[in-house]
Write a structure and sequence with these properties.
With 257 residues, the chain is mostly beta strands. It has helices spanning 69-74, 147-153, 157-161, 204-212, and strands at residues 2-8, 11-19, 25-30, 40-46, 51-52, 61-65, 84-88, 93-94, 100-102, 109-111, 113-119, 135-142, 145-146, 166-173, 182-187, 190-196, 222-224, 232-234, 239-244, 248-256. It folds into two domains: 2-52, Roll (SH3 type barrels); 61-256, Fumarylacetoacetase-like, C-terminal domain (Fumarylacetoacetate hydrolase, domain 2). The protein is built from four helices and 20 strands. It starts with a strand and ends with a strand.
Protein backbone atom coordinates (compact mmCIF):
# COMPACT_ATOMS: atom_id res chain seq x y z
CA UNK A 1 0.00 0.00 0.00
CA UNK A 2 1.24 3.47 -0.87
CA UNK A 3 0.40 6.17 1.65
CA UNK A 4 0.70 9.80 0.56
CA UNK A 5 0.24 13.05 2.42
CA UNK A 6 -1.23 15.70 0.15
CA UNK A 7 -3.06 18.98 -0.11
CA UNK A 8 -6.23 19.48 -2.12
CA UNK A 9 -8.15 22.74 -2.30
CA UNK A 10 -6.41 24.02 0.79
CA UNK A 11 -6.98 20.90 2.91
CA UNK A 12 -4.20 18.53 4.01
CA UNK A 13 -4.88 14.81 4.36
CA UNK A 14 -3.37 11.35 4.04
CA UNK A 15 -4.49 8.99 1.32
CA UNK A 16 -3.84 5.67 -0.38
CA UNK A 17 -2.40 5.95 -3.89
CA UNK A 18 -4.05 3.36 -6.13
CA UNK A 19 -5.32 2.71 -9.61
CA UNK A 20 -8.94 3.78 -10.09
CA UNK A 21 -11.64 2.03 -12.05
CA UNK A 22 -10.74 3.89 -15.24
CA UNK A 23 -7.06 3.01 -14.93
CA UNK A 24 -6.02 6.48 -13.76
CA UNK A 25 -3.96 6.88 -10.59
CA UNK A 26 -6.06 8.24 -7.72
CA UNK A 27 -5.66 9.10 -4.05
CA UNK A 28 -8.30 7.58 -1.77
CA UNK A 29 -8.49 10.02 1.13
CA UNK A 30 -8.17 8.76 4.70
CA UNK A 31 -9.87 10.01 7.82
CA UNK A 32 -7.15 11.14 10.21
CA UNK A 33 -3.65 9.65 10.15
CA UNK A 34 -2.58 6.20 8.92
CA UNK A 35 -0.77 5.07 12.12
CA UNK A 36 -3.59 2.83 13.28
CA UNK A 37 -6.73 1.38 11.67
CA UNK A 38 -7.10 2.65 8.11
CA UNK A 39 -10.42 4.39 7.55
CA UNK A 40 -11.45 6.08 4.31
CA UNK A 41 -13.36 9.35 4.09
CA UNK A 42 -14.97 8.34 0.81
CA UNK A 43 -13.34 11.16 -1.16
CA UNK A 44 -11.15 10.30 -4.12
CA UNK A 45 -8.88 12.63 -6.06
CA UNK A 46 -6.93 12.26 -9.26
CA UNK A 47 -3.22 12.22 -8.43
CA UNK A 48 -2.73 15.03 -10.93
CA UNK A 49 -5.17 17.23 -8.98
CA UNK A 50 -3.32 17.11 -5.64
CA UNK A 51 -0.01 18.42 -4.39
CA UNK A 52 2.12 15.77 -2.75
CA UNK A 53 3.65 16.88 0.54
CA UNK A 54 6.35 15.31 2.69
CA UNK A 55 4.73 11.95 3.49
CA UNK A 56 5.25 12.44 7.25
CA UNK A 57 6.14 15.25 9.63
CA UNK A 58 8.48 13.39 11.98
CA UNK A 59 9.32 14.48 15.50
CA UNK A 60 12.92 13.63 14.55
CA UNK A 61 14.99 12.26 11.71
CA UNK A 62 17.68 9.85 12.87
CA UNK A 63 20.35 9.43 10.21
CA UNK A 64 23.19 6.93 9.87
CA UNK A 65 26.63 7.94 8.66
CA UNK A 66 29.04 5.81 6.62
CA UNK A 67 26.78 2.75 6.36
CA UNK A 68 27.94 1.72 2.87
CA UNK A 69 31.57 0.56 2.67
CA UNK A 70 32.35 2.32 -0.64
CA UNK A 71 30.89 5.59 0.60
CA UNK A 72 32.88 5.34 3.83
CA UNK A 73 35.97 4.83 1.69
CA UNK A 74 35.26 7.85 -0.52
CA UNK A 75 34.86 9.94 2.64
CA UNK A 76 38.26 8.77 3.88
CA UNK A 77 37.21 6.29 6.55
CA UNK A 78 35.81 2.88 7.36
CA UNK A 79 32.33 1.75 8.32
CA UNK A 80 32.07 2.24 12.10
CA UNK A 81 31.81 -0.91 14.19
CA UNK A 82 28.60 0.48 15.71
CA UNK A 83 26.11 2.61 13.73
CA UNK A 84 27.12 6.27 13.60
CA UNK A 85 23.93 8.22 14.33
CA UNK A 86 23.12 11.91 14.05
CA UNK A 87 19.91 13.93 14.03
CA UNK A 88 18.35 16.17 11.43
CA UNK A 89 15.69 18.62 12.68
CA UNK A 90 12.08 18.23 11.67
CA UNK A 91 12.30 21.67 10.04
CA UNK A 92 14.70 20.22 7.45
CA UNK A 93 11.92 18.05 6.00
CA UNK A 94 10.36 18.95 2.64
CA UNK A 95 8.44 16.92 0.10
CA UNK A 96 8.69 15.88 -3.52
CA UNK A 97 8.95 18.87 -5.83
CA UNK A 98 9.84 21.27 -3.04
CA UNK A 99 13.03 23.28 -3.53
CA UNK A 100 16.30 22.54 -1.78
CA UNK A 101 17.47 25.96 -0.61
CA UNK A 102 21.21 26.46 -1.13
CA UNK A 103 22.46 28.61 1.78
CA UNK A 104 24.80 31.53 1.14
CA UNK A 105 26.89 30.35 4.10
CA UNK A 106 28.11 27.26 2.22
CA UNK A 107 30.20 26.81 -0.90
CA UNK A 108 29.66 23.03 -1.22
CA UNK A 109 26.25 21.39 -0.86
CA UNK A 110 26.04 17.67 -1.67
CA UNK A 111 23.26 15.20 -2.46
CA UNK A 112 23.07 11.88 -0.59
CA UNK A 113 20.34 9.56 -1.82
CA UNK A 114 19.03 7.16 0.82
CA UNK A 115 16.39 4.61 1.77
CA UNK A 116 14.29 5.98 4.64
CA UNK A 117 12.45 3.88 7.22
CA UNK A 118 9.21 5.27 8.68
CA UNK A 119 8.36 4.12 12.21
CA UNK A 120 4.74 3.12 12.81
CA UNK A 121 4.37 2.93 16.59
CA UNK A 122 5.77 4.32 19.79
CA UNK A 123 8.67 2.08 20.82
CA UNK A 124 11.77 1.88 22.95
CA UNK A 125 14.37 -0.85 23.58
CA UNK A 126 13.15 -2.86 20.59
CA UNK A 127 14.85 -6.29 20.28
CA UNK A 128 16.44 -6.78 16.88
CA UNK A 129 14.29 -9.85 16.19
CA UNK A 130 11.13 -7.76 16.70
CA UNK A 131 12.31 -4.60 14.97
CA UNK A 132 10.29 -5.07 11.79
CA UNK A 133 7.11 -5.02 13.86
CA UNK A 134 7.55 -1.27 14.44
CA UNK A 135 8.18 -0.38 10.78
CA UNK A 136 5.31 1.38 9.03
CA UNK A 137 6.97 1.60 5.64
CA UNK A 138 9.69 3.11 3.50
CA UNK A 139 10.28 6.19 1.40
CA UNK A 140 13.04 7.92 -0.55
CA UNK A 141 15.25 10.51 1.12
CA UNK A 142 18.02 12.96 0.30
CA UNK A 143 20.38 13.66 3.20
CA UNK A 144 21.49 17.04 1.84
CA UNK A 145 24.79 18.13 3.38
CA UNK A 146 26.85 21.32 3.45
CA UNK A 147 30.09 19.38 3.00
CA UNK A 148 32.41 22.27 3.74
CA UNK A 149 30.70 22.90 7.07
CA UNK A 150 30.65 19.21 7.94
CA UNK A 151 34.43 19.21 7.61
CA UNK A 152 35.05 22.51 9.36
CA UNK A 153 32.64 22.27 12.29
CA UNK A 154 33.80 18.97 13.74
CA UNK A 155 30.17 17.92 14.24
CA UNK A 156 27.35 17.72 11.75
CA UNK A 157 24.35 19.59 13.12
CA UNK A 158 24.72 22.74 11.03
CA UNK A 159 25.86 20.94 7.88
CA UNK A 160 22.92 18.56 7.94
CA UNK A 161 20.29 20.75 9.55
CA UNK A 162 19.43 23.61 7.19
CA UNK A 163 15.79 24.09 6.24
CA UNK A 164 15.00 21.89 3.20
CA UNK A 165 18.02 19.59 3.79
CA UNK A 166 15.83 16.48 4.22
CA UNK A 167 13.57 15.88 1.22
CA UNK A 168 11.29 12.85 1.71
CA UNK A 169 8.82 11.23 -0.66
CA UNK A 170 7.00 10.91 -2.88
CA UNK A 171 4.99 8.58 -0.60
CA UNK A 172 5.41 5.70 1.85
CA UNK A 173 5.43 2.13 0.57
CA UNK A 174 4.20 -0.13 3.37
CA UNK A 175 4.59 -3.55 1.73
CA UNK A 176 8.18 -3.93 0.58
CA UNK A 177 11.18 -6.18 1.13
CA UNK A 178 14.11 -3.76 1.21
CA UNK A 179 16.81 -6.43 1.38
CA UNK A 180 18.13 -5.86 -2.15
CA UNK A 181 16.72 -2.86 -4.02
CA UNK A 182 18.40 -0.53 -6.48
CA UNK A 183 18.93 2.98 -5.14
CA UNK A 184 20.07 5.63 -7.60
CA UNK A 185 20.59 9.39 -7.55
CA UNK A 186 20.61 11.51 -10.68
CA UNK A 187 21.69 15.11 -11.10
CA UNK A 188 20.13 16.76 -14.14
CA UNK A 189 19.30 13.23 -15.39
CA UNK A 190 22.92 12.04 -15.12
CA UNK A 191 23.38 9.05 -12.81
CA UNK A 192 25.69 9.92 -9.91
CA UNK A 193 24.92 7.21 -7.35
CA UNK A 194 23.94 3.64 -8.27
CA UNK A 195 23.90 1.15 -5.42
CA UNK A 196 21.79 -1.52 -3.80
CA UNK A 197 20.29 -1.72 -0.34
CA UNK A 198 21.98 -5.10 0.07
CA UNK A 199 25.22 -3.09 0.46
CA UNK A 200 23.98 -1.54 3.72
CA UNK A 201 26.32 -2.75 6.46
CA UNK A 202 24.17 -2.18 9.56
CA UNK A 203 20.78 -3.51 8.44
CA UNK A 204 17.38 -2.03 9.25
CA UNK A 205 16.56 -4.30 12.24
CA UNK A 206 19.97 -3.63 13.79
CA UNK A 207 19.54 0.12 13.31
CA UNK A 208 16.12 0.13 14.98
CA UNK A 209 17.42 -1.87 17.93
CA UNK A 210 20.47 0.36 18.31
CA UNK A 211 18.59 3.67 18.03
CA UNK A 212 15.65 2.64 20.21
CA UNK A 213 18.07 1.59 22.96
CA UNK A 214 19.02 5.27 23.10
CA UNK A 215 15.82 7.18 22.38
CA UNK A 216 12.08 6.60 22.15
CA UNK A 217 10.80 6.48 18.59
CA UNK A 218 7.38 7.90 17.78
CA UNK A 219 4.96 7.12 14.95
CA UNK A 220 6.16 8.99 11.87
CA UNK A 221 9.79 9.23 12.97
CA UNK A 222 12.23 8.59 10.16
CA UNK A 223 15.51 6.66 10.03
CA UNK A 224 17.87 7.41 7.13
CA UNK A 225 19.86 4.26 6.44
CA UNK A 226 22.96 5.75 4.81
CA UNK A 227 24.03 6.59 1.30
CA UNK A 228 25.93 4.62 -1.37
CA UNK A 229 29.10 5.85 -3.02
CA UNK A 230 29.00 8.70 -5.52
CA UNK A 231 27.92 11.69 -3.42
CA UNK A 232 28.69 15.01 -5.00
CA UNK A 233 27.90 18.72 -5.22
CA UNK A 234 24.76 20.44 -6.45
CA UNK A 235 24.42 23.97 -7.76
CA UNK A 236 21.56 26.45 -7.93
CA UNK A 237 19.48 25.56 -10.98
CA UNK A 238 20.15 21.82 -10.75
CA UNK A 239 17.51 19.13 -10.33
CA UNK A 240 18.29 16.11 -8.16
CA UNK A 241 16.31 12.87 -8.06
CA UNK A 242 16.54 9.91 -5.68
CA UNK A 243 14.88 6.70 -6.87
CA UNK A 244 14.45 3.54 -4.82
CA UNK A 245 13.21 0.43 -6.59
CA UNK A 246 9.68 -0.44 -5.52
CA UNK A 247 8.99 3.00 -4.04
CA UNK A 248 9.33 5.69 -6.68
CA UNK A 249 11.28 8.84 -7.45
CA UNK A 250 11.86 11.89 -5.24
CA UNK A 251 12.67 14.94 -7.39
CA UNK A 252 13.71 18.36 -6.06
CA UNK A 253 15.06 21.51 -7.71
CA UNK A 254 17.94 23.45 -6.14
CA UNK A 255 17.36 27.18 -5.59
CA UNK A 256 19.20 29.98 -3.83
CA UNK A 257 18.05 30.44 -0.25
Amino acid sequence: MRIARFSHEGEVAFGVVEVGGDGAIEVAELTGHPFGPITFSGARHALTSVRLLAPVLPSKVVAIGRNYAEHANEMGGDVPEQPLIFLKPSTAVVGAGDPIAYPSTSSRVDFEGELAVVIGRLCRDVPENQAMDVVFGYTCANDVTARDQQRSDGQWSRAKGYDSFCPLGPWIETDLDVGDLRIATTLNDAVKQDGRTSQIVHKVPALIAYISACMTLLPGDVILTGTPAGVGPMQVGDEVAVEVEGIGKLVNPVVAR
